[in-house]
């Protein structure tokens, strides 16, 4: 392991995985645990989910959202993919001396609006101010609490199970890159930043056979699926030409040499489900405003595989192995 932290450690890829395993898990956990987006545990006979996250996105205002909206949607989605109904959020703010009060007002009002739309309450918070040059305007930390719903995932993966994504991938990554205006990239792609709890609850309430869910944020769709395959010991083959990607995102990736499978998303969910229920899953998703472009993009090809792997069948019929993001594409994405 490298001896100093680099920006790549925050990308959600291989270095992030190593950091979590070799530093945090070795210190905080006495056994190997499957890492979900939230911790789930019982309190007085009820099951609760808790998640925590920090937001350092740059720029703080971007097409389709801002750091405040992102802080709420990201926290809500981390709870929702663990089958929890989001209830409460705390918010901590680190503000740099000289930060515009008008921008802070815009950010907190955006948080309030998104929290109201998601039916969650912001119940506690904290504010710290640091000297000019000690931060980058504003950082936000959140903790989210949710109640585990009666309908939960059943991670009994079977060969032939389907992989579904709720819509186009890479939108958030390209929106952030465009907003930075560092490479002269001109595009009208908006971030997909959105709270997905209502879409996910609709699926859990109406469909049996939902195995697993994950919101593919840092590291993108590829890294999220690699983690699921390794943690739950199954292998997946994606059909590359079925993965929904906006033409503008594909064009930007072709210019910049990016693989859209590794670009961050902030309003998408990837689901593994029983193949017999895939049509119902797609129907429910496509009837929801955040799932209109949902697609089946692959299937489980083996189970009980101690070295779970992710593959992709290309448009010319060849198969390639997909690994976690290795290195750095776009720092400060969320």
TrEMBL record:
Belongs to the HypE family. It comes from Alkalihalophilus pseudofirmus (strain ATCC BAA-2126 / JCM 17055 / OF4) (Bacillus pseudofirmus). Residues 158-305 form the PurM-like C-terminal domain. GO terms for biological process: protein maturation. Gene3D superfamilies: PurM-like C-terminal domain, PurM-like, N-terminal domain. Residues 36-147 form the PurM-like N-terminal domain. This is Hydrogenase expression/formation protein HypE. CDD domains: HypE. PANTHER family: CARBAMOYL DEHYDRATASE HYPE, HYDROGENASE ISOENZYMES FORMATION PROTEIN HYPE.
